[in-house]
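To illustrate this point, what follows is a protein record of this kind.

___
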Amino acid sequence: MATTASRTSLAIPAPGGSLLAELTLPAAAAGLVLFCHGSGSNRLSPRNQYVAEHLQHGGLATLLIDLEHHNHACHGHTLAALPPLQQRLLSVIDWTSQHPQLQMLPLGLYGASTGAALALVGAAERPERVQTVVSRGGRPDLVFQRLAEVRCPVLLLVGEHDLDVLELNAWAAGQLQVRNELVVIPQASHLFSEPGSLDAVAEHAYRWFAEQFSRRTISSAGDL
C-alpha cells in the first residue's frame, strides 16, 4: 500500500484552451490511471474521486481532468459533444507521454458513462500508450464503430439494475476483439449510489488495473 503521494494541480494544454487537472503520484507508482470525465462532469466528481482514492491507496497514480471548459459545458449523452472531448483527451494522453515523471508509467483509462466512450476511442487512437480501459456504467454504443479498433483489455462494470446500459455493454463485449470482462455489480443502479456498490466498483477497477500493469511490467522486462 502506498504511504506517501504528491498532489499537484495542473493546467494541461489542449485544443480550445488549457484543462484543469489534479495529479496524485504515489511513491514508486505502479501505473497511471487517467479519469475520462464525460459530458456534464469534471475532475471534482465525487464518485470518480472516491475510486481514485482507492487506486491511490493501492499505489497507482491518478490524473483527474476537466475535459470541458466551464463556459462550454455540454450536458447529456450526445454524439455532438464527443468529438471535442475526444480531441482534448488525446492531447492529455500525449501529454502524459512527455511528462518526465509519467512517461514510463503504464497508462490505463477509467471512464464513466459518456467518459467510457471517450476512453475506448482514446485506446483505439493511442494503442501504443493506452494499456487498458475500465468502464463504469459506460455508453460504448456512442462509439460502436470504433470498438473493433480497441487493442487493449477492457473491463466493463455495470449495475445489476441498470438494465438498458447492461444490455448495451453485453452487446459491446461481443463487438470487442480483445480480452474483456463484463462484471455486474449486484443491487447497483446507474449511479452506484447503493451502499457498498461504489466500493465494489473501486475494488474491481483496482484489481484490473494492477493486473494489467503487472502484465506490462513483466512483458517489458522480458524485452530487455
About this structure: The longest strand covers residues 5-12.
